[in-house]
Amino acid sequence: MTESVIADTGQASTTRNRAIIVVLCSAAFMAMLDVFVVNVAFTDIGQDFSGSSLADLSWVLNAYTIVYAALLIPAGRLADRHGRKAGFLVGLTVFTLASVACAAAPSLWFLVAFRVLQAAGAAALTPTSLGLLLTSLPPEKRAGAVKVWATTSSVAGALGPVVGGALVQISWQWVFLINLPIGVAALAAAWRIVPDSRDESVTRTPDLLGAAVLAVAVGALSLGMVKGNEWSWTDAVIVAAFVVAVLGLALFVVRIFTHPAPVINPALLKVPTFVWANITALVFCVAFSAVFTSVVLWLENVADYNTLITGLALVPGPAMVPFFAIVGQKLDKLIPINAVTAIGNLLFAIGAVLLAVSASTEVNYALQILPGWVIIGIGIGLALPNMIAAATVDLPAAQAATGSAVVNTSRQLGYVLGLAILVVVLGSLDVTREHALTVFRHGWWAIALIAAVSAATALGITSRTNK
Prior knowledge:
The protein has 467 residues and is an all-alpha fold. The protein has helices at residues 2-48, 54-82, 84-103, 108-136, 139-170, 174-177, 179-193, 208-231, 236-258, 272-301, 307-314, 316-332, 337-358, 365-392, 400-426, 433-458.
């Protein structure tokens, strides 16, 4: 009888843990789905808001990622102090409502403004979803749950292009409206089954001024890079933007070490695995952001695919990610986690090289895009879950939300820089096929070099989870 009760209790606990994982991962799924569907809708948004340059359109993505990156860490710290569940629910609500507002935007710059609100919601729900995941589960389940969390976003990457392509056939506004049913369902489930947690040792409000300084610095850097070609690199505004970026980043570092409640706890910077995983995630996401957007633009503007065909063409790469994330977990038991991550990044670089060397003005998807794209997807599957897991699993549970916010900030900064670099390399898309071939090749070679750098930095990652 006692054994039966214990077995029933254990089964109930397992079922509850799985439900918590599903609910919290659904938030990561929604946030990442939004990234991929917006990328696919990029060209249609530009056509609807006629007269918008590639540089102007890039702010539909960059405004989101800059604000997201700046608010992730303070949102994580506020959640540590006031309750992670409340932060998750508020963030999910803001994100869902802002998505509806994006669909109703009457102009490009209204859309950019509503994307900022979306980013604020995402900044609250992302670290709290991972923080709640880490604090709701027993220690032995955390590493696997983090990899599931990371892999879930990859599944969204596989579904996003197809979903986005199909929705854009109706209207690009539907790529935002798709968040409404997912958000409402996740809110209802989280309210009922996800337990709250907080860090009682956190008594101060985090450095909101430091977060604002970071946003201004990253925004200025992005502005300088995106508008440099259009306004001239010696233009006073461009030079001033780079100066503001350098001074802002320097001030942000100073505040980390001098503020009583800094955005990033200096103690985190003493964990080598955490530091190297964040560096690798930042560099990796520069390459990731640039390669995904470049392939979308190549297919839609050079191959002349419509959004639905583009979405279908993108599927094979992201579809590799969840499968090879599982392979990566198996490999983690055989070889060090840094080796698995480095191999993934090297495969990413090889895939980008294949895109560069096989491209031609007469696009043949099966021979020129598919091989490199699939190899890139395999590399992402091996690298990304390991980077995120390594950056968070070795941290104390009390710093879970903050630690996850830092690694996600690194990822978002990488996305901003990757898109900005791509805009610089590509310039305008209103060019001949021959010129487009040249600039896209340059972009893919640059992406390959960046991915190779992330393979080198990955060698610094070591983790107790691998021992």
